[in-house]
Amino acid sequence: MKLTVAEKIIKDHLVTGDLIRGSEIGLKIDQTLTQDSTGTMAYLQFEAIGVDRVKTKKSVAYIDHNMLQTGPENADDHLYIQTVAKKYGIYFSKPGNGICHQVHLERFGVPGETLLGSDSHTPTCGGLGMLAIGAGGLDVAVAMAGGEYYITMPYIVKVGLTGKLNLGVSAKDIILEVLKRYKVVGGLNKIFEYTGEGVKSLSVPERATITNMGAELGATTSIFPSDEITYEFLKLQGREKEYKNIVADDGAFYDEEIIINLDELEPMVACPHSPDNVVSVSTLKDIKVNQVAIGSCTNSSYMDLMKVAEILDGKTISEDVSLVISPGSKQVLNMLAVNGGLSKLISAGARILESGCGPCIGMGQAPITDGISLRTFNRNFKGRCGTPSANVYLVSPEVAAVSALTGYITDPSIYMEDINIFMPERFLINDNLIVNPADYGEDIDIIRGPNIKPFPKSKELGREIKGKVLIKVRDDITTDHIMPSDAKLLPYRSNIPYLSDYCLTPCDIEFPKRAKENGGGIIVAGFNYGQGSSREHAALVPVYLGIKSIIAKSFARIHKQNLINNGIIPLVFENADDFNNIDMLDELAIENMLEQINEDKIIVNNRTKSKAYKLILDITERQRDMLKAGGLLNMKGE
Ligand code: SF4
Asked: What is the position in ligand 1's atom list of the atom closest to the CA of 35?
């Protein structure tokens, strides 16, 4: 049988199921990663499972999201993660070592292996030919404990790249073009596999920019072949022994196919407030910029920042622009420092931030009120930057750098003529911010600061689910809406009771109070509920508030799994118009739940309006068992 790259890796890791599209498969996971904002909860859950050591080939705990340390909370969290890591056999990447996906690409990713990460941009390592998937913290905890990871066998989209990028056009523009075509929900249950002549002209970091932002398509993951370019990258990282050639067989079957001619691509921009709101830069006229932010796991590689340094070399940024740059890793920052790139950035007027997520997760550098911020990041949801009235445009490093000079969103093509950036002869390798796990963990004590609170667990499914509609929300509600993650809240990621006062408050400030007063209830939502990050807190906090079910027009993939893992029933309207027939505070009831849970269709009664609606419960048998038990941890006997 002729196989695609993704199918080859899936086949090698299949524990249950087959390569039949749409069927449930269980995968053996080789590597895991966590970051600090999801990590504390993932490790609390891992501890609750009760194994002595991780069973993966390699697991890494990164600290990259919250490094402001405005109080002891997140410093305490970091120490908890560090001690858990040491004890259980996990590498610990200290604050300052870089963004999890950038560092994982540089130092840990291995072609042909599976990677499960408690961060939605885990597919970044697909640029190396890994099958890299973002998941909730509990799924990652189970994988660390040796359990398989279940997904629906995705449909595979062939993205054929022909031609070669013109000057001023970059890998970011390729993924923006895919987002323009598929939109933020178009990738659901799909893997985007890149192939064709054009692939050969893209370095691994460029490929990683594309697979990284595949997350915005809602895709299961994105992947490139592992070829001579991959070998070259690994060699420059001193890891050529980990290379394995993985290319699709000639004549392999793809479920869909699109072609992007790189010769015809122009610099693109995703306009506010969605990553799929994509137009060519040349169509935007006279948009004045207040802030330019360069970095994030999408565009903070050595090559990206060297391009920026060369564009800015000898020039000064516009007096009306604030330019902030966060290098993706210590390796990137160190190399820029050694080869003079850093000096060019500083001389031009850039503010250099530490290697981490920084402004991408709203940790500082919020734009001015009503400001225009140009960012090389992957998300521009309203308010994510910390200023609710700001407008964020997503662009390539080239567009960002040139626009920082002109003060307006500018097509970089004519500014690029003398700019030539090549891969270095060798990356600067210094892993002294990575702490190795202890050989034996028995004697290691885990240090838990006062901010580490127990996580909430659901109860077994009862005979009836009933409750008031506590909130009705529109389409495309993100995990940022459900559980905001601004600088004020990020230190409390291991403190669910504290976070509960902020749940869904961007939609309705009274929601937490109403939920508590009513002893929990039901949420009603539009399409694509829970899009965005893998943030499990967007399920854990509703569990704490007593949410029993969410009835939506549709759900985002990772969030739906997180709800099921934590015992919240995700139901979909059979007739989407029924959304309009339910009002806030209507009393809903699902009777005979223990019988209905076994069915694909469920009837909910609206006792306030004396009406009934048909709902769809589109889940697997294993997920039904999980909901009956009240969540995955209950199934594990905890
Ligand atoms: Fe960090 Fe932003 Fe990437 Fe998330 S999307 S891992 S916050 S840089």
From this structure: 6
Residues 209 and 184: beta-carbon distance below 8 Å? no
- For residues 240 and 224, what is the distance between their CA atoms, to the nearest angstrom? 18
Q: Could you identify the atom of ligand 1 that is nearest to the CA of residue 295?
A: 8
Closest protein CA for atom 3 of ligand 1: 297
Q: Are strands 131-134 and 149-152 parallel, antiparallel or unpaired?
A: unpaired
The reply to whether ipTM tops 0.90 is: yes
In this chain, the answer to whether the domains covering 5-264 and 269-411 adopt an identical fold is yes
378 within ligand 1 shell (Cβ under 6 A): yes
- What would the pLDDT profile of 452-500 be if each residue is shown by its tens digit? 988 888 889 999 999 999 999 999 999 999 999 878 898 898 899 999 9
CATH fold of 465-631, please? Aconitase; domain 4 (3.20.19)
For the purposes of burial, counting CB atoms within 10 Å of the CB of 226, is it exposed (0-12), middle (13-18) or buried (19 or more)?
Answer: buried
Question: Does 480 contact ligand 1 (Cβ within 6 A)?
Answer: no
Could you tell me the residue ranges of all domains in the chain? Answer: 5-264, 269-411, 465-631
Report the separation in Å between the CA atom of 613 and the middle of ligand 1, taken as the mean of its atom positions.
39
Counting ligand 1 atoms within 8 A of each CB, the residue from 60, 62, 65 with the most, and so the one to mutate, is 65
DSSP for 69-135, please give it: -SSHHHHHHHHHHHHHHHHHT-EEE-TTSB-HHHHIIIII--TT-EEEESSTTGGGGGGGT-EEEE-
Question: CA–CA separation, 484 vs 487, rounded Å?
Answer: 9
pLDDT, averaged per 10 consecutive residues of the chain (638 residues), comes to: 97 97 97 95 94 98 92 93 98 98 98 97 98 95 97 97 96 98 94 98 98 96 98 98 98 98 98 97 96 98 97 97 98 97 98 97 94 97 91 98 98 88 92 98 95 87 95 95 88 92 96 97 96 88 97 94 96 97 97 94 97 96 95 75
**Fold category of 5-264 in CATH:** Aconitase; domain 3 (3.30.499)
269-411 fold: Aconitase; domain 3 (3.30.499)
385 CB within 6 A, ligand 1: no
CA neighbor of 150 nearest in space, from 256, 10, 254? 10
